[in-house]
Specification:
six-stranded antiparallel β-sheet, single chain, alpha/beta, eight-stranded mixed β-barrel, TIM Barrel, Beta-Lactamase
């Protein structure tokens, strides 16, 4: 076996996994994070642009709506002055005009006029719920493209139109988006303004939105240069995070390995020094309500690791080839129990679990001979419980059966575990010399009064057990319902919390002594039982 001190190094396979994870983080996760962050930032900026435009548009139409509240709009001196005053104080509008129900402008802040509004604009105004619209057209007064806003009061049959420079809506957008984003704003089919739209990335979906009234289309994009800059700018942080994660995982792995090595060493030492306790769980004959046999189970209360699960102890023992030592340690404790409590345990068989690898080990056979020489009390009382015969190949099975027959010559009873859930093939039972058959605890835990299929399995096992003189034991019985169902099918021997948990030696002896006393009140127990 290799020294556990070498286990603190990280295996090459784990290093490769960590390296692939590191590359995955840098090549996939980090760019993906930047992508989703930029996408989120783009959406946020797009919403801010839309809110800015919406605010300006609402402000413009509010100013135009105030003019329409004047009592008289006949294009007289007072009306013209009102139009001039409104355009003068407006931060957006430079000219204002009034149009009638026939959509002809009859008055501007220059005086009386008479010219029609385009039919397409009229259609959009009439189609809009709030009767307002915008368009871009060439202004005769300023001799350049301008933004026109229209608002119609259906009740008064009068409308107002305003003229604003195209940059009015764009002002503030560049400052809001900075140099990282491009944009385009369109009124209807006409582009009002745009900035670096063609430099936008095709990797990140652009933000697109529409202000239905008055037909404003908004598009915001992330520039390719901004993506590259962001990736490069944050790469050192990403590398640092990846390295820290790599270091943390490596350190955690080393700590875990070191802790496991420490745990393994403690278990190995406990097995070598025989510091592991052996408990005994009674198997009850329900016809006599007395202990007929028991199973020896390991328990270990470690000062450092607390109450350690038996499966962990077995795992360490198997890992370091100590199963033979662990099994013989338990048998030694069973032999000592028989010696210390003569007269009380004489008629009680105690079964010790042994895996097939240990059972088939020649060293184990030799150890059994030594133990029987040391503790002759074991003869005719010790039992070995194993499982997994149904998993063996034909050759392995035949070899194992021969070893079982050899072991039985020592006067050792053989118990076969896991029947029911692990397997339910009686062919193994027919061709193997065993003394006890155990129904698997998982099988018993799922057993109920309506379980016809499992009931048939139990009946089949009972028939074969009776034919071959095998005791059938139900393991893991915890409830009265389970016990009643099993006994109704003919099960006689019960093991589980319904009767007793696994007990320390002194408590187990008290239970056994009580049964012995009840069975034969004339027998006087040995003084050693106290």
């Amino acid at each position: 076996m290799g020294s556990v001190t070498g286990n603190s190094a990280i295996p090459t396979r784990v290093k490769r996994v960590l390296l692939v994870s590191f590359l995955f983080f840098i090549v996939i996760l980090y760019p993906s994070y930047v992508y989703y962050e930029l996408q989120s930032s783009l959406q946020s900026k797009g919403v801010e642009v839309k809110q800015l435009l919406q605010s300006k548009i609402n402000h413009m139409f509010d100013e135009m709506g105030l003019v329409l509240t004047l009592p008289e709009l006949e294009c007289d001196k007072h009306t013209v002055q009102a139009l001039r005053r409104a355009s003068f104080y407006s931060p957006y509008l430079t000219e204002l005009g009034l149009f009638n129900s026939e959509y002809r402008v009859y008055c501007t802040d220059y005086g009386k006029s008479d010219f029609p509004i385009f039919r397409s604009i009229r259609s959009r105004i009439e189609a809009a719920d709030d009767h307002r619209s915008m368009s871009i057209a060439l202004s005769k007064s300023i001799k350049e493209r301008a933004l026109f806003a229209f608002l119609y009061d259906e009740k008064r049959q009068i409308g107002i139109n305003g003229l604003a420079p195209p940059h009015v809506l764009e002002n503030g957008i560049d400052g809001l988006l900075g140099d990282e984003f491009g944009y385009r704003i369109a009124v209807g089919l006409e582009v009002l303004g745009q900035h670096d739209l063609l430099k936008g990335s095709t990797l990140i979906r652009p933000y697109e939105s529409y202000i239905r009234s008055p037909d404003i289309f908004i598009s915001v994009v992330v520039k390719d240069r901004h993506i590259v800059t962001t990736l490069l700018y944050r790469l050192p942080i990403a590398l640092l995070v990846a390295i820290l994660l790599y270091w943390s995982i490596c350190t955690g792995f080393k700590v875990r390995v070191a802790k496991q090595a420490s745990f393994d060493n403690r278990v190995r030492k406990a097995i070598t020094n025989r510091d592991i306790d052996v408990y005994f769980q009674p198997i009850i004959d329900i016809k006599t309500s007395q202990v007929s046999s028991a199973e020896a189970l390991i328990r270990w209360q470690s000062e450092r690791f607390g109450n350690v699960e038996p499966t962990r102890i077995v795992s360490v023992a198997a890992k370091y080839d100590l199963m033979n030592d662990l099994t013989t340690m338990i048998i030694r404790s069973v032999g000592a129990a028989y010696r210390n409590h003569k007269g009380v345990l004489d008629n009680i068989s105690i079964f010790v679990n042994v895996d097939l690898a240990t059972l088939c080990n020649d060293a184990f056979i030799d150890d059994l001979r030594d133990l029987f020489s040391l503790y002759p009390e074991l003869e005719g009382r010790l039992g070995l419980e194993t499982h997994g015969l149904y998993l063996l190949s034909e050759l392995e099975y035949q070899t194992t059966v021969q070893l079982i027959n050899t072991i039985r010559q020592f006067g050792i009873a053989i118990s076969l575990d896991d029947f029911g859930l692990g397997y339910a093939d009686t062919s193994v039972l027919k061709s193997t010399s065993i003394d006890v058959l155990k129904l698997d605890r998982r099988f018993v835990s799922h057993f109920n009064r309506y379980d016809v299929a499992n009931g048939d399995i139990v009946k089949q096992a009972l028939v074969l057990a009776n034919e071959k003189g095998i005791e059938l034991v139900a393991e893991g019985v915890e409830t009265s319902n389970q016990m009643e169902r099993l006994t109704s099918l003919g099960i006689r021997y019960i093991q589980g919390y319904h009767y007793n948990r696994a007990l320390p030696e002194r408590e187990f002896v008290k239970v056994a002594f009580k049964n012995t006393k009840e069975a034969n009140s004339s027998n006087t127990p040995n003084a050693d039982t106290e």
